[in-house]
Amino acid sequence: MILGLYNYWIVIILMMIGFYIVIAHGNLIKKIVGLTIFQTSVFIFYISMAKVDEGTAPILAEGINQYSNPLPHVLILTAIVVGIATTALALALAVRIKEAYGSIEEKDIQEKDNLDC
Amino acid sequence: MKDLFAVIMLTGIYSLLSASFFVAMDAVDVAFTEAAVGAGVSTLLMLVAITITGRSENPARHKPFLALAVVIVTGSLLIYGTLDMPHFGSSLAPIHQHVTPRYINDSMQEIGVPNIVTSVLASYRAFDTFGEVVVIFTAGIGVLALLMVVRRPEDIEKINFLNESMHEKHLILRIVTKTLIPFIMLFALYVQFHGDFGPGGGFQAGVIFAAAIFLYTMVFGMATARRVINQSFIRILAAVGVLLYGSVGVVSMLNGKEFFDYSALASDPVAGQHLGILLIELGVGCTVTAVMVIIFFNFADRKEKSQHNENKGS
Amino acid sequence: MLTHLPVLQVIVPLMAAPLCLLLNRPRLVWLFTLIVSGLAFVISGLLLQQVLTSGTIIYDLGGWDAPWGIEYRIDLLNAYLLVIISAISTVVLFAAHTSIREEIPASRHTLFYILYLLTFAGMLGIVATGDAFNVFVFLEISSLSAYALIALGKDRRALWASFQYLIMGTIGATFILIGIGLMYQMTGTLNMEDLSKLLPDVEQTRTVFTAFAFVIVGICLKLAMFPLHLWLPNAYAYAPSIVTAFLAATATKVAIYLLIRFTFSIFNLSFSFTHVPLQILFLVLGLAGIFVASTTAIYQTNVKQLFAYSSIAQIGYMIVGFSVSSVAGLTATLLHLFNHALMKSALFLALGAVMYRIGSTQLSQFQGLGRQMPLTMAAIVVGGLSLIGVPLTVGFVSKWYLVVAMIENGWWPVAVLILLGSLLAVVYVWRIVEVAYFKPALASTKTIKEAPLAFLIPVWVLVIANIYFGIDTRFSVEVAHAASMNLFQGLSGVNR
């Protein structure tokens, strides 16, 4: 069983590393990096689901009769684009926050907000 | 790690490694997209962002115990969930038995395109892909709304920092770039139109085309790039891409079939499928190129503005 | 054209967004957006009528039948939500042109309307679809545009609020993606109806349990259910007034829709509530949300933030109604969905009028406002009464049905707790009334005039709706009840 599932376990560890970076780190850029790692690991999870032993890329060709599953590929293509869209927006926000607060560390921003109140 | 530059480069390497993993998993289209988008554009944007936000991280960190607890719980739940999963690579898994067999067996008759990923993406699940194009468009508009710098005529003369282009200094770079760019664009067009037969399609093509423009901008400077690429043209191109994609669906509806039913586009259903896929991929390519360029230019503009403000202040 | 209504509902606003970019003049763009929103409202009304007469509508996109293609599946629950979302959007847009003049720089106005249309279309798309992955795509459309909209707020805290919302929202969306992936792995399909047929065979597996957990947690992050609500107060407080008025009334409702859709229609009832201890979990968290949020609201100095915490409490009420898992309880939740949308959009729009006139929503600035902006403050008072649950307002109707559902189920202590929650609402509404009516006006150089008609008309339309639907409850109760009964019968009401 371990041999059959080790792939997924590695992916889960990668996911959790990304997740940890998002929630534990205070620097906004690091959070965005963590989010990217988290999302990429989810993609790896989906793609490893799609693989069929002895299969090839799902492009129809003569002589091949075992293909890997194309549906997760389609889903992940969409998810990759969604990921980059989120990253771009998050980076734009980080740039604006830097301009407005002078810092992109969570602690500094919260201190400045508390001073305002 | 305290140096964000190193962090970003390592993330880029992680994306590239996952792209090679995807190739090993037979996901060639995905690998292509991940390499172009994840390792390419994403890394580029993050690097541009840290030129504005600062390259190093403040080392002080708060207690990570709560975060660690949450992560351990989530991870354990996921591992618990994997215990009943079908084994990696097993061809008996439910996902290979149910919906997919029709895609593999019938897509050649129904759509006539060898790349099954393209036929699913562009025809069976075309609406998802439409949503995807809209997501990219949204990101472009969002970045515009956040970072747009309204340029007044007098500013244009004063801003010349990023225009310290490598013109005079790096002749070889200039010439090689000028030679390479048309090939890159040609490759992008190849990828765009051969998505039916091999890995490729609108997204990958759009990103590669945008990459050619980025290369030009980086070597020749923002001022030149802005003269070559008109700002309002690029925004209209982004909108036109989405509208082109949607119009294919509208035409199907006007011809009496469902939205995105390409068989309504031509007398022979398979020819209609080909036409529909061609048009929507074109729409995708237009929007992706335009939005990538918009995002990059806006980040660069913002960098110029912050540089300008720094110079004014000092 | 009538057969294409399900897809037109989403396509009309979706394609109107890039069209705005081609139009470019802000006033023209505003009118265009208003017309598109009104069209969407008309379509949703027609759809509701269709569903009420002939049952669930199914529309196969691309001509491919599900599960190989994506299908749109409009039943009573969807149609009900579509009407709510498009109605609120149209009413709120009336005041948009005037409101954003003071809050957003002119160069961004066209972009504002584009983002607004994208959020609107995204939400409609989430509600109308019958495919699980399509939900994820449109969820991201509406979320990304919402993050950008919130960040357009004047105060720099809007940027930080938007960033926090982005991080939490993306984690939630990624969790939902993981959940969908796990469900897909065990069944091989993404279509909601197909999943509901195939999941019972595998529902005892650990993978499906994990899938359920991830999807529910992801939805709860979007829902701002206690304790995952941390992004909401700041996001609502610092966003532009129109954005708050629109999102407060619609975004969380869509998340509740997803919750109901996943627990009732995709995973069936016995799995969701018996196999997984969802009932007790949601009951506890819902009640906790009501009390913690209401209490926090009492101590707020920013009125917008006060009402944002109040929203979290109201979501708590909806969760409690949901946790009962009886027809009565679900009816109460669906009713409250409608009523809360009316209440909060009226309140936040009125606050938008205040913001327009005095440039701030700090409670201290409200002194004497009852006399200077009588109509606006009266609207806020009626909205507040509705929140408390005074008879003749919609708030009373929801609370009544909720309490009745509790008693029917034998949960007397919970009914008492719900009434206690209303008392807390009295406290925070009274704070505003006291400052606005019983304190002398602030000495300031500007004379404060009543809000312009552009605000007063939509605000009072919503306020009158608050009272009207509080008295004549036939529409909301009948539709909510019918939708609730439908859900208990299962998704394939068409075929079974």
In short:
The complex is a heterotrimer of chains A (117), B (314) and C (496). Chain A contains four helices and no strands.
Textual characterization of the structure:
The complex is a heterotrimer of chains A (117), B (314) and C (496). Chain A has 4 helices and no strands. Chain A is mainly alpha-helical and 117 residues long. Chain A has one domain: Helix Hairpins (Orthogonal Bundle), CATH 1.10.287. The longest helix of chain A is centred in the last third of the chain and has 32 residues, at 70-101. Helix content of chain B is 75%, strand content 0%. Chain B is globular, with a radius of gyration of 23 Å. With 314 residues, chain B is an all-alpha fold. In chain B, helix 10 runs parallel beside helix 13. The mean pLDDT of chain B is 85. Chain B starts with a helix and ends with a helix. Chain C has one domain (2-495). Helix content of chain C is 77%, strand content 2%. Chain C contains 21 helices and 2 strands. Chain C has a two-stranded antiparallel sheet. Mean pLDDT of chain C is 88; it is low at 491-496. The chains are: A mainly alpha (117), B mainly alpha (314), C mainly alpha (496).
Sum up the structure in keywords:
heterotrimer; B: 314 residues; mainly alpha; 2 domains; 13 helices; C: 496 residues; two-stranded antiparallel sheet; 2 strands; 2% strand; disordered C terminus
Q: How many domain modules of chain A?
A: 1
Tell me the major beta sheet of chain B: none
Number of strands of chain A: 0
Quaternary status: heterotrimer
> What's the CATH topology name of chain A?
Helix Hairpins
- Give the helices and strands of chain A as they follow along the chain: HHHH
Class derived from helix and strand content of chain A: mainly alpha
Taking all Cα atoms into account, the compactness measure Rg of chain A is 20 Å
The rough form of chain B would be described as globular
Q: Would you spell out the secondary-structure blueprint of this structure?
A:
The complex is a heterotrimer of chains A (about 120), B (about 325) and C (about 500).
Chain A (H helix, E strand, L loop, with lengths): L1 H23 L3 H23 L19 H32 L4 H11 L1
Helix pairs in contact in A: 1-2, 2-3
Chain B lengths: L3 H21 L3 H26 L11 H18 L11 H4 L2 H11 L5 H9 L1 H22 L5 H6 L12 H23 L8 H19 L1 H7 L2 H24 L14 H45 L1
Chain C lengths: L4 H19 L2 H29 L2 E4 L10 E4 L1 H19 L1 H8 L5 H20 L3 H19 L6 H31 L4 H11 L3 H18 L8 H7 L2 H26 L2 H7 L2 H21 L4 H21 L3 H32 L10 H4 L1 H15 L5 H15 L3 H27 L14 H19 L2 H16 L7
Antiparallel strand pairs in C: 1-2
